[in-house]
Structures are given as C-alpha cells and as structure tokens.
Design a protein that fits this description.
The protein is mainly beta. The chain has 2 domains: 4-214, 3-Layer(aba) Sandwich (Protein Transport Mog1p, Chain A); 224-355. 14% of the residues lie in helices and 36% in strands. It contains 6 helices and 20 strands. The chain has helices at 29-39, 123-126, 199-209, 252-255, 284-294, 347-355, and strands spanning 8-12, 49-53, 58-62, 66-70, 93-97, 107-116, 137-141, 144-155, 158-169, 172-183, 213-214, 224-228, 235-239, 245-248, 262-268, 271-278, 303-307, 312-316, 319-324, 327-334. The strands form 4 sheets. The chain has a 7-stranded antiparallel sheet with strand order 4-5-6-10-9-8-7, with helices on one face. It has a 7-stranded antiparallel sheet with strand order 14-15-16-20-19-18-17, with helices on one face. A 4-stranded antiparallel sheet has the order 1-2-3-11. The radius of gyration is 22 Å and the shape is globular.
Length: 359
C-alpha cells in the first residue's frame, strides 16, 4: 500500500520520464504521447523546478526564490509570513516566496496555492468566486478555461490578496490563488522602511501560475466531503455516502483528564475509520509517557515518516500518529466490534489518510 507521504513527485524541468510516473491509466501510444505533451513545459525559464501532484493530476513550474510546501504548511520548514495568510489551512500545495529581495520593506509574504473545493459540485457553482463586487473574467491556461477575479482583505494595519482562479476539471473544482500581503507604510516611523512595490512579484506569480497544467485524472474521484473537528482541530475527507459521527464528545473535563479528549469516525463497507485526539501533551516525553500508560504503541515502536517544526507523523503498528502543538491525533480502522485492524488497502483508507490535516 502506498503511504500518504508518497504522493508527490519533484523533477527537473523538461525531464520527460515523469510522464510515465504519474500512475495515470494509459491505453495505447496515442494517449501516452498526449499525457507527455501536456506535461512538457513551454517557455519556462531555465533553472526552474518542476512539481507533479500525482493524486490530483496537475503539474507546475516555479523559480528558485519559491519553496514548495507539498500538502500545505503543516509539514513545511518555512512560514508564509504575514498577519493575513497567503495560504490557508486547506490547500493541497503551497509555493511560498522565500527570496530576500524585499527585506527592509513593508512586504510580509507571498504564495501561490492550489486547493480543491469539494462542496462545488458543478462547473456553475465552481465559477462563482467569493470576491464581492469585483468582476469575474475568464482565461485559458494551457487549454483549460479558468474563471478568475481579484480578492483581498485588510485589517489592523495589514493588507493581503491577489487574483483567484477556478476551473472545473474531472468533476472537481480547483482553486488557485496568487496572494501577496504586507503592512501599511503608515504603521512605520518615517524613513525606517522602504515601500514595497508589487508589480515585479505579481508578474513572477503570474508566470508560475501560467505553467499550471492538468496532466492526469483526479485519482480518487470527486465523491468526497470534508469534515472539520471544531473542538480539537483536524480535518479529513470521507465518502459522500457516509456520515461522520462522534464516539467521544469533547468536554473540559476530558481535556484535563488522562483520557482521549475527542473521537470521531465514519463507517464504510463494514469498517470504521476513526480519528481520536488527546490534547495537552506539551512535548515528546509527555506524549511517550501517555502512550505507554494508555496502551498504545510508544514512540520507540513507531517509525517517523515526516517531521517539521510544527508536526511529526508516525506509523505505529496499525495506528498512524500525528503530533504537534500539544495535540496527538490517532488515525486507524476498526471492525464492527471496534477491534483495530491492519490498514485496509482500499481507496477509502487511502483518501482518509492522505487528506488528514492537523489544524
């Protein structure tokens, strides 16, 4: 079974072999050629990196002053910066500007993000951007029609925003956002900072956005919903046909106890897919002591797969652990008698695991 952290590919620009590594079903030489042609970058500056998201069937290229945060910011060693986020919590991928050109100015952050909107089930719904009175226009990017418009916000002396693009592809609504944020110059003492002018960076973001192209299918299809736990954080996708239920309700009493704080699950074809959470575990030592006292595999028995300054992800027997910001999430599957089972090799568990975000 492919693990959730095996879902991305990063290759040099122009390396055609990536066409055969997408996991895209191909039938005959004509389709193989079409897929490879769709991925071959055109008019991309030399030295740019190329990225392929295999789960959602798209590629893009980006310059060296941007850092790829595959899966979003949770497992990225860089921060997007800024009071107003340039990447939100639910993105598939985020390209964060990490160059130094604008140091000493009122610039705060910039990023290009890609996400899917599971609740937009038709092209008509997908094209209705949330941009207030700003006009919605259309643009063809590498053969695909996008609806786009300018979005922005401000508050407490800060500003942020940029163009938002949407396209309905393979029955899924994709949203791309090229955001820049900063602080109003009036917040600083005169002469202490230079004013940021965004034209050059806006042009760079637009150049990156114009390399975006669809290169294969959305592997797990469109029929998924998103559940977000408002009590302890954490979100995941689950099939349309199922319902998420609480098996343990959050309470202040449980938060201060040694018990699981909150637990949710959904049932599908005889299996329960669950996320349990324990809060107030301030560090790894406290986490490990709690695991041992609660009968779960401890960290000595676990294999760490991903790590950042924010979160770490482990495989521990039949469980997956995600730990960070004093909260542990435990993911797994059980039978109808609530016995934890080996991870099933099916599309439901794969999507459940890959889509989980600890925020």
């Amino acid at each position: 079974m492919k693990l959730p952290w095996e879902r991305i590919g990063k290759v040099g620009v122009g390396v055609i072999v990536v066409c055969l590594g997408l996991g895209v079903p191909v039938y005959g030489l004509y389709l193989i050629a079409a897929v490879c042609q769709a991925m071959t970058p055109q008019n991309v500056p030399s030295g740019w990196e190329s990225y392929s998201n295999r789960d959602f069937g798209f590629t893009l290229q980006y310059s060296k002053d941007f850092t790829l945060c595959a899966g979003g910011l949770d497992y990225c060693e860089v921060t997007a910066g800024g009071y107003i986020p340039v990447c939100d919590d639910n993105v598939l991928d985020c390209l964060v500007y990490t160059g130094k050109e604008y140091e000493g100015t009122n610039f705060e952050g910039a990023a290009l993000s890609v996400k899917v909107l599971r609740d937009k089930r038709t092209e008509q719904d997908c094209s209705k951007l949330d941009i207030g009175p700003n006009p919605i226009k259309t643009k063809i990017i590498n053969g695909v029609r996008f609806h786009y418009g300018m979005a922005g916000e401000g508050g407490l002396g800060h500003w942020g925003g940029g163009p938002t693009y949407r396209a309905f592809y393979d029955k899924v609504c994709f949203e791309l956002a090229a955001n820049i944020s900063g602080t109003y110059v009036a917040n600083f003492e005169p002469g202490t900072i230079k004013e940021f002018y965004g034209a050059k960076l806006e042009e760079k973001l637009d150049s990156i956005l114009n390399t975006f192209r669809f290169s294969g299918p959305v592997v797990d299809g469109p029929a998924w919903r998103v559940y977000h736990n408002a009590d302890v954080g954490g979100s995941f996708e689950y099939p349309d046909r199922d319902t998420v239920e609480k098996s343990i309700e959050y309470s202040f009493k449980r938060q201060s106890s040694n018990e699981i704080t909150d637990s949710t699950y959904f049932s599908d074809n005889g299996l329960n897919y669950f996320v349990a959470a324990k809060v107030d575990l301030r560090d790894r030592d406290v986490l490990d002591a709690w695991l041992k006292s609660s009968g779960y595999p401890n960290l000595g028995e676990a294999q760490e797969f991903r790590h950042s300054v924010f979160f770490s992800e482990y495989r521990a027997g039949n469980y997956w652990y995600v730990f960070g910001q004093a909260t542990l999430y435990i993911l797994g599957a059980s039978d109808q008698q609530h016995n934890v089972v080996a991870p099933p090799e099916n599309v439901v568990f794969r999507r459940f695991l890959r889509s989980f975000k600890p925020h």
